[in-house]
Design brief:
294 residues, alpha/beta, FAD/NAD(P)-binding domain, 2 domains, eight-stranded mixed sheet, seven-stranded mixed sheet, 17 strands, binds flavin-adenine dinucleotide
Length: 294
């Protein structure tokens, strides 16, 4: 154990209890490692009410190269803790079907073509609240706000921890403490009065009682913070899918945090963060890679 900095000695400290920190902490524990998680609360961005776990991304329907592997691992990691709702209909314009069909075949993502587009039976959505709460069960978590890192992590209330290794999984809010750059993109998820059939278009996704953006055209609705324009962007996208405007009862706001690489070395350990819009898809895969390397 490092001596002389006066904090409580800890083997591996995972900073953050969002989907990245919790995935890693559970994997390390399963490998018999002693882990302490330090976090202000369970998740920041990970508290988005409903998350879609989907490797087909964006307006151009790029299929992430490691998306199929990530999807399979996310399913295995989450299934013991949360109900997973499988199956999503992706609307695809006629002109783009051939290109997408080729990609889906190349990466081996199961799919069935339908009149409106492609049905993806292994893509799923989940409610994040119960998932985070149940993934946190049994882990050693010190709740508190970290205010400084100098090889010892200093909490606002005076507690200090000196780890042999620290993994930063603190998302956007704690990144400044570790000198990480990154890009922040604000966004909202609208909560709807009615439950809707899961569907995805070039603009929005519908799942459970949530309406979120699948492609963010910031030029179309104005720069963040979220504006009336973004609400209109989402609602008109939903209307194109449903043939009506769903009734909105509430909205959740959050920030996506993107780094070029989700796993990097930092002084004293690693950063496992910066997953942008795909934390629920990619965090388990990168957490596994790190857990295997430690
Ligand atoms: C509107 C919106 C919709 C989204 N939809 C999806 C989706 O459908 N599918 C998908 O895969 N992804 C989606 N995302 C992205 C996803 O939410 C993120 O990629 C993911 O949640 C990031 O998880 P994380 O564990 O890296 O960080 P976070 O969830 O941000 O967790 C950070 C953790 O660090 C802790 N922390 C931070 N600072 C401190 C500090 N100073 N002291 C102590 N603790 C601290 C926090 O308390 C928290 O526990 C969406 C994001 C937004 C904003």
């Amino acid at each position: 154990m490092p001596e002389g900095r006066g904090g409580v000695p800890v083997l591996i400290l995972v900073f953050g209890a969002g989907i990245a920190g919790l995935s890693l902490a559970r994997m390390l524990r399963a490998r018999g490692r002693r882990v302490l998680v330090v976090a202000e609360r369970l998740g920041d961005a990970s508290r988005v009410p409903i998350a879609l776990v989907n490797p087909v991304r964006g307006r151009r329907e790029v299929v992430l190269p490691e998306g199929v592997e990530a999807l399979e691992l996310a399913r295995t990691v989450y299934a013991p803790f949360s109900k997973l709702h499988f199956g999503l209909l992706r609307w695809v314009p006629e002109g783009e079907r051939e290109r997408l069909a080729l990609r889906l075949k190349e990466v081996g993502l199961p799919h069935e073509w339908r009149r409106e587009g492609v049905f993806l039976p292994t893509v799923f959505w989940l409610e994040t609240g119960p998932l985070l709460a149940r993934m946190a069960e049994g882990l050693e978590i010190a709740f508190g706000r970290a205010v400084a890192w100098d090889g010892t992590l200093h909490l606002e209330d005076g507690r200090r921890y000196t780890p042999e290794l620290l993994v930063y999984a603190g998302g956007a809010r704690g990144a400044g403490l570790f000198g990480l750059g990154g890009r922040l993109v604000a966004g909202i998820e609208l909560l709807l009065e009615d439950w809707v059939e899961p569907a995805l278009s070039h603009r929005v996704f519908l799942a459970g009682n949530a309406l979120g953006g699948s492609y963010l055209n910031l030029e179309a609705y104005g720069e963040p913070p979220p504006t009336q324009g973004e609400v209109e962007w989402l609602l008109s996208g939903a209307e194109a899918l449903l043939g009506r405007r769903p009734k909105v009862v509430s909205a959740w706001r959050g920030v996506r945090f993107r780094l070029f690489e989700p796993l990097t070395a930092i002084p004293g350990g690693y950063a496992l963060t910066g997953f942008g819009s795909t934390g629920f898809l990619l965090a388990p895969l990168w957490a596994k890679r790190l857990a295997e390397a430690l």
